[in-house]
Recover the amino acids of this structure.
């Protein structure tokens, strides 16, 4: 977890406190609190309908929160109209003005702020240099390819040096190859500018690749806010585990608590795992158990390690190039996925072969039941 | 996408066959009379330009021509000023409210022009609603003469032609992606500057189309000026009708018709060019 700046609102570039937005009976934003340090790249990641776009609209000021507070560099902007918020925004479909040239588009925020003509020109050039767009300044956006339109939108959002940059799936309209390229460029630009960025996406790969921290949004709440690595290695809930990367999930019961670990009973046998969250688990409590496919050990013979191993039958294997996915059925019918290296002997086992599955206790997450 | 696809999967022959009845109808009901009155205007009784000379040298006829153009212009501007806010309203409303406003705009379009024009007589006559209201409020002592004036014609024509202004503007406002005004607002523009810098310029194709339609229809409008306009509020179309049906001067009526047609085509051409320029910067 990153250092929390709770109670010292002055230090955060952006600080949200108990933000609530309802549409009729639907709570689109459910008491969201979030602190973003200056220079951080924070992604809001969630499935569609999770409320991430509403949160962004609240930040930009196109929607007004029912309650709660938004502070930008210490200034309360919860009730400030969008044009006075000092926020640069990049839209999903660029939202470039089709009747203005590239230069006029980028100059727009400066013109609205009454910046002198000569100064406008200088800053427009500097901003376009920043995004490495030095030609076609007198063309209209429709004459440029998608990647260049994206650069123009970016230049327009940074040219007035806003306190924070909001990006709403800005790479969503680009093809996959260009998207990878722009991801690298965006992060480099963000470092050069030392900009604070809030980035909305539903693409987990993109969020993991670019962000210093990721907020997983689900049903209007921040389910977990952490570094990409931490989200993957220590998901706070089955939802996060499932949303970031692949995971095997199944129901179990707590058998016994040990120091730092707990033993759970599953229909196919006993497992050792690590409890997730602060709540203490009592023996007999219903839990969800999760394990990453690549952290499962699949062996032809039991290895005799500390972790309990359980027999499984191979249903089929899928060759993915850099790994092989093994689909197995446990004794009780529970299905599990594991990935192994293509060089492992287990990668070439035939359908119906019996193997032994085990996992180290730190790789078995035990989530309290009731968590999403 | 193949050409076949664009044309809805019809071959050229099939498409031509389907279009044939309409083409024939246009030939009989439009092209033939057109040729007829153009030739009448220069060939009756012998090859001559006398009818045109008469038109262009008469101060009276030129005044009617000029006042028709001015009336059409005033009607166009009035319809734009009054119609634009309604178009904005229509483009923003959703659900039942949008349905109600749209109906209010469309119902007049489905009502015969004659009925709407007679309604204006009831409103504007000496013992009409407007005069009664003004007198009972004590703002005027005696009823005003509103009927049979150019003013009455302008007011009624504006109302009659309003849907032709509202609908194209509304459709062009609807085609503006909602992120554009949002982006402008977020980048520092006040609501007014969002309108001036983004919404208005992007709605210009609709504005142009609406103005063109209203102006051209207004130029040749007959029923409303004929009923609501007095003898002093003559327009080109009432003049044509008078020449053709009262004075039976068909060659002269034809000559005026040709002038009206040329005027209309000329204006349409100018607008087309302006539309193309606008369209380029939008959709190139």
């Amino acid at each position: 977890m990153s250092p929390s700046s709770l109670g010292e609102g002055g230090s955060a570039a952006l600080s949200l406190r108990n933000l609530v937005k309802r549409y009729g009976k639907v709570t689109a934003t459910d008491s969201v609190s979030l602190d973003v340090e200056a220079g951080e790249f924070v992604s809001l990641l969630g499935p569609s309908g999770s409320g991430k776009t509403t949160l962004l609209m609240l930040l930009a000021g196109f929607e007004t929160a029912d309650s709660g507070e938004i502070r930008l560099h210490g200034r309360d902007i919860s009730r400030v109209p969008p044009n006075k918020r000092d926020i640069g925004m990049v839209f999903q479909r660029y939202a470039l003005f089709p009747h203005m040239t590239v230069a006029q588009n980028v100059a727009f925020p400066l013109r609205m702020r009454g910046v002198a003509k000569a100064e406008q020109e200088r800053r427009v050039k500097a901003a376009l240099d920043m995004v490495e767009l030095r030609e076609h300044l007198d063309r209209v956006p429709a004459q440029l390819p998608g990647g260049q339109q994206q650069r123009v939108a970016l230049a327009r959002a940074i040219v007035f040096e806003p306190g924070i940059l909001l990006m709403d799936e800005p790479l969503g309209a680009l093809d996959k190859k260009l998207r990878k390229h722009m991801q690298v460029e965006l992060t480099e630009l963000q470092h050069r500018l030392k900009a604070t960025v809030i980035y909305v996406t539903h693409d987990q790969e993109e969020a993991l690749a670019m962000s210093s921290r990721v907020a997983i949004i689900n049903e209007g709440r921040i389910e977990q806010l952490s570094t990409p690595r931490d989200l993957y290695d220590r998901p706070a809930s089955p939802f996060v585990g499932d949303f970031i990367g692949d995971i095997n999930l199944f129901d179990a019961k707590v058998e016994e608590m040990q120091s730092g670990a707990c033993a759970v009973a599953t229909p196919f046998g006993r497992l050792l795992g690590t409890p997730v969250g602060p709540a203490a688990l009592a023996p007999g409590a219903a839990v969800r158990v999760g394990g990453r496919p690549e952290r499962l050990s699949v062996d032809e013979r039991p290895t005799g390690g500390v972790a309990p191993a359980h027999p499984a039958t191979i249903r089929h294997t899928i060759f993915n190039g850099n790994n092989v996915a093994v689909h197995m059925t446990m004794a009780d019918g529970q299905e599990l996925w594991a990935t192994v290296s293509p060089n492992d002997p287990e990668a070439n086992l035939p359908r119906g072969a019996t193997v032994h599955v085990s996992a180290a206790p730190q790789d078995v997450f035990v989530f309290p039941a009731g968590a999403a | 996408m193949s050409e076949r696809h664009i044309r809805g999967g019809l071959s050229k022959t099939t498409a031509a066959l389907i279009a044939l009845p309409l083409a024939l109808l246009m030939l009989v009901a439009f092209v033939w009379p057109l040729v007829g009155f153009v030739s009448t205007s220069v060939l009756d009784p012998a090859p001559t330009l006398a009818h045109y000379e008469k038109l262009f040298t008469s101060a009276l006829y030129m005044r009617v021509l000029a006042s028709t153009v001015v009336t059409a212009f005033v009607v166009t501007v009035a319809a734009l000023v009054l119609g634009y806010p309604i178009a904005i309203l229509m483009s923003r409303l959703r659900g039942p409210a949008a349905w109600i406003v749209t109906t209010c705009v469309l119902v007049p379009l489905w009502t015969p022009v004659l009925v709407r024009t007679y309604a204006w007589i009831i409103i504007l006559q000496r013992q009409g609603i407007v005069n009664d209201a003004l007198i009972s409020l004590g703002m005027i002592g005696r009823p005003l003469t509103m009927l049979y004036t150019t003013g009455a014609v302008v007011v009624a024509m504006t109302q009659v032609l309003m849907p032709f202004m509202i609908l194209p503007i509304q459709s062009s406002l609807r085609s503006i992606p909602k992120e554009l005004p949002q982006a402008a607002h977020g980048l520092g523009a006040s609501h007014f500057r969002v309108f001036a810098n983004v919404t208005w310029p992007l709605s210009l194709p609709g504005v142009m189309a609406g103005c063109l339609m209203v102006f051209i229809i207004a130029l040749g409008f007959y029923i409303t000026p004929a009923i609501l306009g007095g003898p002093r509020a003559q327009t080109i179309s009432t003049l044509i009708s008078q020449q053709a049906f009262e004075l039976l001067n068909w060659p002269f009526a034809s000559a005026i018709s040709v002038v009206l047609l040329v005027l209309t085509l000329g204006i349409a051409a100018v607008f087309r060019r302006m539309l193309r320029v606008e369209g380029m910067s939008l959709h190139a």
About this structure: Chain B is about 80% helix and 0% strand.
